[in-house]
Structures are given as C-alpha cells and as structure tokens.
Amino acid sequence: MKWFFALLIGIGTGFAAVFINISVENFAGWKFSLTFNIIQKSYLAGCLIYILINLALVFSSVSIITQFAPAAAGSGIPEIKGYLNGIDIPGILLLRTLIGKIFGSIGSVGGGLALGKEGPLVHTGACIASLLGQGGSTKYHISSRWLQGFKSDRDRHGLVTCGCAAGVAAAFRAPVGGVLFALEEVTSWWRSQLMWRVFFTSAIVAVVVCAAMEWCKSGNCGHFGLGGFIIWDISGGQEDYSFEELLPMAVIGVIGGLLGALFNQLTIYVTRWRRNYLHKKGNRVKVHIYSYRHTYIFR
C-alpha cells in the first residue's frame, strides 16, 4: 500500500505541475501576443492592455488566497518544514489550500510577478500526499474509505515527505534533487525504507513531466514552450575559460552580492510594514494594496 500511494503521489504531483506550467505559459503567450498586436497600432493602448491583463491575473490570485485559502499564502516550504518537524500548523494540507496554491501560482506567475514554482509545487505535492493518506476531504464530501489506510502520524509523515520531494522533482525535473531536498532540508526523521519510496515517487514525477513535454512538442499545448518545465535547459556550452574572464566574473559576483543584500534588506522593511499596518486592516485592503503595488512596480 505504501508503494502504491507513492505511485499515486508521483502521478498526482506530476499532473499538477503539468497543469500549472501549461496554464502559466499559455496565459503569458496570450498576453504577449495580444500586446504585440495592439502595439503595432498604438503603443499606449498596448501598454494599458498589458497592465490590465497583469492586474486581472494578480487580482484573481490574491483574491483566491485572501478569501478562499489563506493557508496557501507564501511559498509553502517553511510550513512543510515545520509540519514535518513536529509543528501543527492549521489548514496547510487541506483541499482548499491545494486549490488555492495551484490557481494562485498560475495567476501570480502568469501576471508577471517575480515568483518561482519550486515552493508552490513542494506545498502542492505535500497537500496531495496528505489528502491521499486520509482518503480525500470529508468537508467537501470527496473521500474514499478504501484509501483511508494511514492513520498513524509516522505513516502520514512518510507520505508528506514523499510529496514534498515530488514537488522539487516536478519543479526541476530532478528525481535525485527531490530526494536530497527531503533528506537535507525538510525532515529530521529519516529511515532507509523511506528513502527508496521518496526516490520512487520522484522518479514517477520525472517520467510524467517528461512524457508531458514530449506530448507538448507536437503542438498540443498552445503557447507552451520547450523549456517550460525547467529553468536551465542547457544542451551545450563553453567547456573551458580564459584567465581574462576571471575579472568580469568577480565584478559580476560583487554586483550580485550587493544587489542581493539590498533586496534582502528591502524585503525585511516591506515585511515589517505589512505585519504592522497591512494585516490589521482586513482582506479587502490586502487585495487593493497588492494589486496597486503590482501596477506601481510595472510603471
């Protein structure tokens, strides 16, 4: 049963990743195609259409999170780390959290926000694993007694570990990376039997994702591109380097470090402002301020 559930987790997480990536790339493709066609006639009209489409996508994702699934806010990795290390966080593995994470990721990434899909996919995989382990969702009357085979905390812990590893494997198409993430970053309780199930789950995810990419190459996925499932799709490159390239590399490293430190400091200031002022004024203010901030950043 545990191996069968590992198979189901891998298939479910793989299909969730396929759905998220195809949706994001198609929204982005439609957005840029429409903007490009309008810019040929009027640059201002094209700019306004681009802003409105981004606002609509971001507004939809923010509304889903604030009104329907507040536990889906954020990347999801800190919450899953806390859960797998013994901290009970209410609502992070519910069905509505899974729905909010999937559609919130589509709206945020499709709307142009500087967000990745690793954290959301880790949270998505953990939610799928938890829901399968408890037989579905009793609140929404989507449950099966046949699937309710894991009642102990140890078994659920193993399933959620498989789910978070599957999320990393889906994000980077890297089964071994999913195993290492679960082993080194997420959980403190580990055993050799769990390692093999985690690797099996990650391998199933990689197979599902690769099969989807092959299917999309024939043009069945709209605007979906060849590199949609992986950030660095490198097929060739420079094998060696010359001594003169070391100085530009060092300069790039210094600039990157300074910009990273500035980004982290600004993030701290913004987070404190949100905690002290924004979260005290309710969900409606959050939606309006988030949407306005997206417009301001674009301008």
UniProtKB/TrEMBL annotation:
<comment type="similarity">
    <text>Belongs to the chloride channel (TC 2.A.49) family.</text>
</comment>
<dbReference type="InterPro" id="IPR051280">
    <property type="entry name" value="Cl-channel/antiporter"/>
</dbReference>
<keyword id="KW-0407">Ion channel</keyword>
<keyword id="KW-0406">Ion transport</keyword>
<dbReference type="InterPro" id="IPR001807">
    <property type="entry name" value="ClC"/>
</dbReference>
<feature type="transmembrane region" description="Helical">
    <location>
        <begin position="158"/>
        <end position="182"/>
    </location>
</feature>
<keyword id="KW-0129">CBS domain</keyword>
<protein>
    <recommendedName>
        <fullName>Chloride channel protein</fullName>
    </recommendedName>
</protein>
<keyword id="KW-0869">Chloride channel</keyword>
<feature type="transmembrane region" description="Helical">
    <location>
        <begin position="249"/>
        <end position="271"/>
    </location>
</feature>
<keyword id="KW-0868">Chloride</keyword>
<dbReference type="GO" id="GO:0005247">
    <property type="term" value="F:voltage-gated chloride channel activity"/>
</dbReference>
<keyword id="KW-0851">Voltage-gated channel</keyword>
<keyword id="KW-0677">Repeat</keyword>
<dbReference type="InterPro" id="IPR002251">
    <property type="entry name" value="Cl_channel_pln"/>
</dbReference>
<keyword id="KW-1133">Transmembrane helix</keyword>
<dbReference type="Pfam" id="PF00654">
    <property type="entry name" value="Voltage_CLC"/>
</dbReference>
<feature type="transmembrane region" description="Helical">
    <location>
        <begin position="194"/>
        <end position="213"/>
    </location>
</feature>
<dbReference type="InterPro" id="IPR014743">
    <property type="entry name" value="Cl-channel_core"/>
</dbReference>
<dbReference type="GO" id="GO:0034707">
    <property type="term" value="C:chloride channel complex"/>
</dbReference>
<keyword id="KW-0472">Membrane</keyword>
<keyword id="KW-0812">Transmembrane</keyword>
<keyword id="KW-0813">Transport</keyword>
<feature type="transmembrane region" description="Helical">
    <location>
        <begin position="43"/>
        <end position="65"/>
    </location>
</feature>
